[in-house]
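Researcher: Quick sanity check before group meeting.
Model: Go ahead. Protein one:
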Amino acid sequence: MVRLNVTRVGFLMGVSLLLAAIVYFFAANWDGLGRADKILLSAGLIVLFYGASFLFAKLKGMPQHFSFLSSLLLVAGCISFGASAALVNQVYHSHADTFEIFLVWSIPALLLALLTRYSPFYVLAYALVHLTLWQLFFPTSLSVVHTEEQLLGIGALFALLNALVLVAAHSRWLQSAVLRLLAFVGLQVALLAMTALFETSKYDILSNIASLAAIALSFFFYYRIRLNVTMLTFTGLAASAYAVIRYLELLDEHSSTEFYIGGLLFVAALLTANVFFFRFLNSIHSGEDEEDKETDAVREKDTDERKKGALSGKIVSSIVIIVGVLIGSASLIGLVLTLDLGGEPEYLLYAISLIMLLAAILLPKLNPAIRYTVLTVGFAAGLVSIAWIDSVLLSLLLMAIAVFGWLWLDGRAQHLFIYSLLNINAAILLFQLLDSLPHDSAYIVLTLAVLHTLVYTAQHWLQDSKRRQHLREAGLFYMLLFLLWLTFMEDIFPHSGIWFSLINFVVVTALAFHFINRNKGWEAGISLAFWFVYIGVKYYDLLWTLMHKSITLALLGALFLGVTYAYAYRTRAASVPADQPGYKPWSGSGIIWLLIVILLQLGYLAWFTASSESLLAHGKQIKLQIEPLDPRSMLQGDYVRLNYSISTPPDKVREELERPRSTARVQVVVRPGIEADAYVFDRLHRGEPLADGEVVLNGRVSGWQTVYYGIETWFVPEGTGRDTEQSAKYAYVRVSARGDAVLERLSES
């Protein structure tokens, strides 16, 4: 099983690197390829991934490996289609990150999820549908204003969508634990966001009733109708989040001694409720133990569920405690600052923090929840005070007490949290010591990375196995965090950023395989998480061009796949059964359905290309004055955002659009102006005949009375956006008889 996991992770890394290379290459917008070349390349990559998936599904030599690789390449084919859809929009300068990209991407993801019942497709489809709706209502490339009624409708739509997915995930037709959890969290987040959004409006009561009703209904359903401890745990988290949001609303309105005292009492009530809630969950487990007379298979399944419930319970309990600690710390600090006791409040705060720390450490009969809360609140207050006082001696004293507390107390979550606060203490201390050095922030991050490496490698001196494990886990997490952070810091010696990037990639990759080979699940999961985060965040690292990153990632992906394949061949075990998804798409009638999905994807690329080329060839050319800007799209690379003179209507037209409307569709009549023959805004089109020279443009208007025509984005090769921004003054646009427009070129005149 360990060897099987190693090969799966190797294949996953290799395919992920290839996909990242494709996205980076497309985003680089290399001008060495023409429009047709780029589109043919994107279509070829889609066919390549799907074809490779089919090939490995039919190979018989290593069924356990080929099955996984076939499923992985099937997912990669769908992801490559999304990159290709972004590319064709880039080629014809459509809006950056437009909702249409995610919409057409979500369709094959949904179809493949229904065909294969494969969890990655469920997650991908869920994410894409939500991105589609988010970009529809809150497009990143446009400025859109919504009324309260529209915001209420948008929030209700997200909540309803997740409620329907949640119901479907419970049905026999679509049983999926992953979708169930995603939809539950999405539903609660949507409703909680609405309670925060409408706190001062007439919809406040309605949104609060909806959120409380969802929490109560979830508790009733997962306790009385379909017992599920994991979902009950997340219901408890939702209730805690609701209470915290209400407290923060009050904090925004009030600032007084009495309120901060109330904040401390709120924290006490929150943590007390947390303790009683998890006692209640434990009692459910005990009751199940007494009544369990089922078969061994049922008992084994129930044990797995309990382990998942216990793990989620620990996570949620830790989150609640951390939130309580943050609120308690803020309340304590606010209380000290509002009390008029004379003198310097920072020293009073420091003294209170020491008292709380010593009391939490030295009083043995304190309730564990109270102990950890007092300890962490005291430590947090101490961190604020030492940053305020700026004394190395006081920083060292606080750190010494915290280290003693870490050694004295027990518990993984508590150890990790104290260790996290110790990092802040160490950062403050290092800043006090290294403030005079150039690039002091880079040296601080480097020092912390080295310290955590030493902690991780030298934790064996601890005799207690639990503390040793907790120190190893915390040291690993923060070692990887600061190694990643180093890759974004300014150079402290020539090319240090490149060297740190190389070290980070090699170390994280080696650790991931090491932990998988040693069957250490938690450490392997942390290493893999940082590995994928590194691949993703490097997209925005300007130290290295996207083209160079793409080539490097492609070579690394091919290397990973080759080495993993060789390893899999050497360790193959034909007796291990293949574990393809429940529905096998590359067998029987599944091939037909899968080919239909693939043809739909290729058909979209062909249709979009043909319609855009037709418009470029036959549309009427007009000239527009522009004012460019220079951001970057998350999928399509650098682009220049174009603000046209016709984007702002004349005053007489703005009066018509004074009432805020969410992306209402309009038709605008433009006519040749006086300056350089550039077209100008004339009026809104009401269906009347056009005069000679007049052209109709389709647009959308936001609440800012700004009209968008779908031609506001001009994608450029990486690094050339600033030049385009400075030189381009006019845009040449092709317009069809129906008013659709496509950008043809930018020019100085």
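Researcher: Fine. The other one?
Model: Protein two, sequence then structure:
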Amino acid sequence: MTLPARLADLFPREADLPAEHVPAELPLEQREYLVDGALRRWEGPRQEVLSPVCLRAGDAVAPQRLGAYPLLGRREAMAALAAARRAWDEGRGRWPTLPVAARIEHVERFALRMVEHRDTIVRLLMWEIGKTLPDARKEFDRTVDYIRDTVDALKDLDRVSSRFLIEDGILAQVRRAPLGAVLCMGPYNYPLNETFTTLIPALIMGNCVVFKPPRLGVLLHRPLLEAFRDCFPPGVVNTVTGDGREVAGPLMASGGVDALAFIGSSRVADLLKSQHPRPHRLRSVLGLEAKNPAVVLADADLELAAAECLLGALSFNGQRCTALKILFVHESRLDEMLERLAAGIAELRAGMPWQEGVRLTPLPERAAVDYQASLLADAVAKGAAVVNPRGGEACATYIHPALVHPVASGMRLYAEEQFGPLVPVLPFRDAAEPVRFVVESNYGQQVSLFGEDPERMARLIDPLVNQVCRVNLNSQCQRGPDTFPFTGRKDSAEGTLSVSDALRVFTIRTLVAAKGTPANKALVTGILRERRSDFLSTDFLL
């Protein structure tokens, strides 16, 4: 049995907290934010931060206070943007005109400083959003690897760009140039990694950044503020914290943002984009919702399919855009699949993030539990049932995974992205049914297909690749490896993120060209020989 008789007993007493996993900095009373190369102190209102890790005292369970962060306003946000625009200086600033090799040195220096704070950030990932210890370590290490991979990808890109092209008597050198001021806004579920998958490429390509951490996941970025300050020129990295309507809205409405990097909901993305007065000047890089289905065919290996579906649906409690959000199971295999899924859920250990072997943890806030409960209640009211024992049972910030069947059109759980530990299942007779779901869905990120017959799989692959951007065969949906393109159709994404694609998405191709006359050849040769230009150069990065 993975659950205690009382769900409240999942939560620890204060005396039971392991000292090695409690951040020494708590409570973390953040009053600083970074603007124009200086940490400014905020004396105004602050947002209290409560942990998903609640503490038990007698029969009561109450959230642990972690600290607070500044609730900045329009004035402070606009000062951050002004600093970024000064550093950009219409493309003439120190940072956008630095040689590629010099920008790489700054980013590598930052990565070294970042590693010094690994233990602190890992602990804060556990306490601030409820991520398990192994997953928190993985998120941090993957982020550092991403920075190193980005450096390598930029070197490869620059080597290719170092050569000259000669076409129709015109000689030219084509390189990628930065866009300007970038607003980066990351998600709470991967507050470090997914934020940095836009922040780092934007920076290393010469853009100047205003960075807003997600509402859930602000404090874990506090240890990095000094590193940003010390490793980049003033104004290149600026931070704002607070309510998005108070800080992000004015930034977009000012027209001073040249590129928006946002990972969150399409509703918020549409609102942000609509506030920009010159939308044709705005480059958008968006990672949005998904309703990724799994399709389990009649000839699927059910042991494999059930294991992958559980992993895909319940890793980090289902709080991933790439999670499997709905399972289509051929009617001939439905009973066995439900049995395997229910048994698999029963084997998952629930507990606190630092406990060994724990797979199920509290959600970041009580509102997320209430949302899951509302989706479940709607499905049950419309004819679905909870298959697994204690599915949907909740206490404070924890809700136990619910295997829900049969889910049907008309239920909220059929179309809405639940972003939590609800596993909706529905049977199908003809494979055209799950294909129709994908076609009619507002989302088009990924799909997982489970089966062994090459002909059947091929008949599904061909229509689905024109509906989603990744078809996974006999495996869960996922983002990695980071060298693969990561994007989506419809309301799931705008722009493509991978290590190399991200470098391109925050830049524009630009070139220097000249007719191949003797005088122009001598001119270009003189510039190259004397290394008079950082753009027009044949230097080869090693």
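Researcher: One line on it for the slide.
Model: Residues 292-482 form a domain with the Aldehyde Dehydrogenase; Chain A, domain 2 fold (CATH 3.40.309.10).
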